[in-house]
Amino acid sequence: MDAQVTALPLPIVFDDVHVRLGGAAVLRGISLRLEAGSPTVCIGPNGSGKTTLLRTAMGLLTPDAGRILWGGSPDASGTRRALVFQRPVMLRRSVAGNLRYALAVAGVPRSRRAARTRALLQQVGLEELADRPAPRLSGGERQRLALARALAREPAVLFLDEPTASLDPAATLAIEDLVRKVSASGVKVVMTTHDLGEAARLAGEVMLMHRGRVVEAGPVAQVFGNPHTDEARRFIAGQLLV
Length: 242
Hints:
The protein is an alpha/beta fold and 242 residues long. The chain has a domain at 12-90 and 153-236: 3-Layer(aba) Sandwich (Rossmann fold), CATH 3.40.50. The protein contains eight helices and nine strands. It has helices spanning 50-58, 95-105, 110-124, 139-151, 169-184, 196-202, 220-225, 230-236, and strands spanning 12-21, 24-34, 40-43, 65-70, 81-84, 157-161, 188-192, 205-210, 213-219. A six-stranded mixed sheet has the order 5-6-7-3-8-9, sandwiched between helices. Strand 1 and strand 2 form a beta hairpin. Helix 4 (139-151) runs parallel beside helix 5. The longest helix is centred in the last third of the chain and has 16 residues, at 169-184. It is globular.
């Protein structure tokens, strides 16, 4: 691959970013820096802007004000990023067929796709389900397939939007194990979750969002053990933020 195709998007820097959707302010003056390293986990109540933050970092939404730099550049084209949505859509083909399609879209040569498909299936523990129609997978299996499709892009940054929402404990554990392995391989993971326990288990750093702003950010031990803001103290104590 040439240098443009393999451009690294880190650090991702938000500089006073504002995003409006349907006339409403969803992100309000976001300034942050996402560095390489352990997972960054974004927490906060529904409607706080977590998903919009991921979509904007991915380049799917354009700020109405402010700017984003990917690896020091305002040009996001060619950067190695992937996003897994909370409810991923499965193509009407087999599990392996979903991966072959993802590899083709990622520009992997046809001669490499079979071996890469097998490796991805093994990575996410779906090798025995390779021939099963993807729409027939359980929720946890679908999420693992969605992760495999994202990894087909060989991302430097992987965005995960509520990857364990509505999953049972066993499926949640499988996804969390995958997140740890992906992070250990050098991929920067940025994810949202509503589960404070999950954030504590996975995060290196935590961001709390409320009403479109990042109101607290720092190492997980500091944010959970000694939060600086009233919003963080209340949210971590299980109180509702409105």
